[in-house]
Amino acid sequence: MPVKWMMAGMAAIVAAGPAMAATPRELLVQSAFQTTDKDQALALVNQAIGQAEAMLATNPRDREAFLQRAMGIGYRAKLTRKPGDAKTSRRMMEQFAAQYPRDPEAQLALGGWHLDAIADGFLVATVLGAKKEVGLSGIEKAAQLGGDRAFFKSFAAMMLIRQDVKDVAAARALAEQAARGATPTALDRIGKRDAESMLIPLRAGDGKAAAQLARKLLPYGRLDG
Questions:
Q1: Is residue 7 part of a domain?
Q2: I need a labelling partner for 31 at 20 to 30 A (CA). Which of 68, 91, 191, 222 fits?
Q3: Which residue stretches of the chain have pLDDT < 50?
């Protein structure tokens, strides 16, 4: 999509045993945050979507499968620049956030969708119906609902400074919390590491450098070209 749909976050794929297939979440994490080749990234996304759809066919109420399918469609839109996928992803994220309003992942996914679309330019944001206030509200709620976990505050800090290079104080406060945050998952460990990296330009008051770094750390910032 012209957006980086997140749900994302800063992550390393969890290593699976030789007899275990990667989950949709793990495939999307690898695609968005580890892969540098676009074709490989898209193949991983399509694999994740297929697995999530198979899980939903077995159990239509599978919460994790629904979220990862929504994320996968959004990532596919980012890679293929198909607005139809982008809008489908947004509708699914809106549904998920409405159903689970206190889920920090739900709020982060929806908020990130809007801010990513805005970051891709006025035309993209207009076509897709992105709204700055919805995006900012989503990442703020995610940071609050995520408690002391590093991932949510780290991701919110990066989204915030990318949105406004002058918002150094708020982004730094979030990054400082993330650097001290709990790391119960691989996402949180990577989030903490990225927050520590972000603090170098943020502590120096360099919003432009921090925003540039955030773009590289956010989903698909590592793709070649």
A1: no
A2: 91
A3: 1-19
98 falls within a domain: yes
Number of separate domains in the chain:
1
Q: What is the pLDDT of residue 8?
A: 39
Among 161, 175, 176, CA closest to 211: 161
Helix, coil or strand: residue 182: strand
Which pLDDT score is estimated for 123? 80
pLDDT for the residue 20: 54
Secondary structure of the chain: what % helix, strand, coil (to 5)?
70, 0, 30
- State CA 130 to chain mean position distance: 16
- Dihedral of the CA atoms 187, 191, 193, 199 (nearest 10)? 180
* pTM for the structure as a whole: 0.86
Cα–Cα distance between 195 and 192 in angstroms, integer?
Answer: 5
Which domain range does residue 96 map to?
A: 24-217
CATH number of the domain to which 35 belongs:
1.25.40
Handedness of CA 204, 208, 212, 214 (dihedral sign): positive
Neighbours of 21 (CB within 10 A): 10
Instruction: Give pLDDT, residue 121.
Output: 86
